[in-house]
Structures are given as structure tokens and as C-alpha cells.
């Protein structure tokens, strides 16, 4: 059996000014990985591709891997990048294979298509009508009809932080093989609810998503081939942003629809619990300072969640860092500020030197009323590093993280990690690889929303959520929603 395994993965924040070109999909290489090099990179890793490869190898299938293209979340995908990736996948379908397994995000918007994945699947379907296709999607997928209608099976993550990427792909892959062998007859039902759950309220350690995902897993034990509740990605101004559900049944449309309807109804009932409320920044930082004085020995995390790069943030906003400096918190490690210019300057003066740099606040954010400003920092360059480290936590275990050239700038009380490539801090390696032991700090500032929990929640005494600035703003009134279907909760009273 010959199986095409491929990845085209991007979560698009349509309000983000960060450009999504082919280089962003290439992980620091010239082009996205292909073929044997991609297989070697992803085999055995805690990723969707790792899961698909495992299923194929267990089945003794021949694997064709035309492209492995995953980019960190950012603005709409440039047409050239989309065409490059889609062409390779469609060509592999046309060349002939028995089935296809796709690692897609589900919230990709390109310059030309609001449903990037739907467009890809339409093209694959017309190149190879009748070919079975398995799709594994992120929990933040914003589903469109074409994404479901052109797939044979669809599965979604049950966890956020996403620690079940590999098993989500394995589930899709195994179902696909059973369908190819004629053992099952997958029937899919999907639908959405008019709601935009807030990302800060979507974690599966917390109610209501913990219970919703548990119910989906229970359906899978009770006969559903797959049951997935997608909380969706609200920072995308497209008609189908928001919550949706997909159920796959064996030959029984009525059961698939009943499972789908139940998931949507339960989520709708819980809609108020998905609303997030903010606190003024000055108050949050003061509260963190107090908590830090009371809890020596375990760090207090200050979460700079308006600027989470894994939701499309520029990672160069400075409001939370500036407030930490202003209120005089001590023994702080901050990750991180994206500022390649500042890194270059610090690399030139070298480790051990004193410098004054204008940090961050450089990327204009036309979607926001108020822009972030650079913060002037005087300190000592503690370290210059190549910024690579092996991921050790479930989300990317086995893969190499690449922060680009990285500098640690120390004011004394505050160590700031300044990076040249966007990486969300979910793995402690982002600190330890540059000589900072996060467990020994009184405070950690992290530009993250929920994924930090994988690597940092366990070491912290408290977490204080700080409303900074950025395109992941929790103040929806700041964003001009024009395309999303209305009415939708909580933008409209319902
Ligand atoms: Zn996600």
C-alpha cells in the first residue's frame, strides 16, 4: 500500500502584521522539508506527522512525504507559499497512491482563500476522486464545509495545551486504514455554534472544556469512530470562525448527527464560561509582586498573553515588561522579546559588555488602536547563543526548537531573553539553553496563553494573567470584525 503523508499547518490571525511567507514554513531552511529528510525529522516525535508515520510503518505501507510545512501562527499566508505547498501535495495525489493522511491546522487563511485547508482538499479531491483522505486538525480549527466534505475521516485534538497531537493523527490514520480495507464505512456530520470561545478560557485543565472534551472521548468509547469539539480560533475575521463539532460514525448518519448535536448543545450551554475578563495591567503586576514576596522558592508567572506568538502575536510588545521594570520586581526572567536588530547589536558588542538598546515595539499593528512602544533598556549582555534546543515536553518532544540568534540582556533585577525567531515559551529549554534556570527565579514573564502550562505550570506557585498589548488582545472591541457571521456570542448579546 502506498500512502501520501503531508503537512500544511498554519493558524492564521487575520489581525497579525507578521508576514507568512514560504520562509516561515521552512524552519530556518531554504524550503520546507520533503521526502526522506522529513521522515527522518518527524519519525518518533510527539507530532501529527510522527503519529501518521507510526501508523504507516506498523501497516508496512510505503510512505510518500511530498512536504512537511508548518509555520508559527501569524498573518494571512502569502499566495506563493500556499501554492508551493498545495502543488506538492496535489502532485503526489495525482502521481497515484492508495490513501492520504494530512496534518492540517484547520484555521489557515491565505491572501486568496478564507478556508485554506478547504481549498487544498478541493484540489486533492479533484486530482484523485474517490481516494480516502484522513485529516488531523488542531482544536483551534475554524471549520468550513469543504474541509469536511472532501475528507473521509476527520479527527481533532482533545487537549489544550496540545499534548495529544500524535495520538490524534494515529486515530485518523488507523480509521483510514480500516476504511481502505473495507472494515468500516465512515459517515461524517459537522456543524458550528454561533460563539467565539475565548482562547484563555479554552484550556482542558479547566471547566468547561475539560468536561466537553471528556464527553467527546466518551463518545469515541461508545461507538463513535471519532468525535471532536473544536473550540476554534477567534482572532480570524472570517465567516466560520468559532466553535464547531465533527462526529464520524460507522455507516449511521443519524448517530453521527446526534453526537454532533449533543457536543454543540453542551458547548452552547457553557458559553458564558468561555468569556474572559481582564484586570488592569498595573494591578496585575502589583498583585504578582505581592505574591512573589509571599511565595519564595517557587516562581510566580506573569503571563503576557496579549502577545502570544502561538496565536499570531508579534512577540515584540513591551507593556508588561515595562510595567515589571517600573514596579521594580526583582529576580525576573522574561521570555521573550522578538527583536533581531537588538540581538545583532548585542552580538556585535559581545557577552559581558554594557549596552543601551531600544527593545521591541518596532512592528506596526494596524489592526490595533494603540501601538506598542519600544522600551529603552540599559544592561549587560549576559549571553549570546545560537538559539537551538531540543524540545523535551509532550508538544514537540523529539524536535529541535529554533529561536534564531538569541541574547540575554540583564538589567540586574531582570534578565530578558531577546530572540530572532518566534517561539512560544512552552518548553523550559527556552531558558535553560541560554543559562537561566527558571525554577530558581522569583518571577517568570512568559508571552503565552495556555501552552506554557506544559513546561512551566508545575514549577510555579502562582500565575498572574497580565493584559498587555498585542494582536491577541482580549478586548474584542479593539478589533474590527467585518467578516465573521453575526450574530455571534459574545460580540452580540444572545
Ligand atoms: Zn491550537
Topology:
Layout: E1 2-9, H1 35-42, H2 48-58, E2 62-64, E3 68-70, H3 79-95, E4 99-104, H4 116-127, E5 133-137, H5 145-149, E6 153-156, H6 165-180, E7 186-192, H7 209-221, E8 226-230, E9 244-250, H8 253-269, H9 281-294, E10 300-304, H10 319-326, E11 332-338, H11 340-349, E12 354-359, E13 375-385, E14 388-390, E15 400-402, E16 406-410, E17 414-419, H12 429-432, E18 443-446, H13 452-456, E19 462-466
Parallel strand pairs: 1-2, 1-3, 1-4, 4-5, 5-6, 10-18, 10-19, 11-17, 11-18
Antiparallel strand pairs: 7-9, 8-9, 12-13, 13-16, 14-15, 16-17
This protein binds zinc ion.
The site of zinc ion has 4 residues, from loops.
Offer a concise description of the structure.
By secondary structure, this protein is an alpha/beta fold. The chain has 13 helices and 19 strands.
Topology, number of strands: 19
Profile the largest sheet: 8 strands, mixed
Strand line-up across the major sheet? 12-13-16-17-11-18-10-19
The first-to-last residue Cα distance is 51 Å
Low-confidence stretches: none
Question: Overall pLDDT, averaged?
Answer: 97
Kindly provide the radius of gyration, computed on alpha-carbon positions and rounded to a whole number of angstroms. Answer: 22 Å
Backbone structural class: alpha/beta
Q: Cofactors and ligands present?
A: zinc ion
How many DSSP helices? 13
Q: Percent of residues in beta strands?
A: 15-25%
Apparent shape: globular
Percentage of helical residues? 25-40%
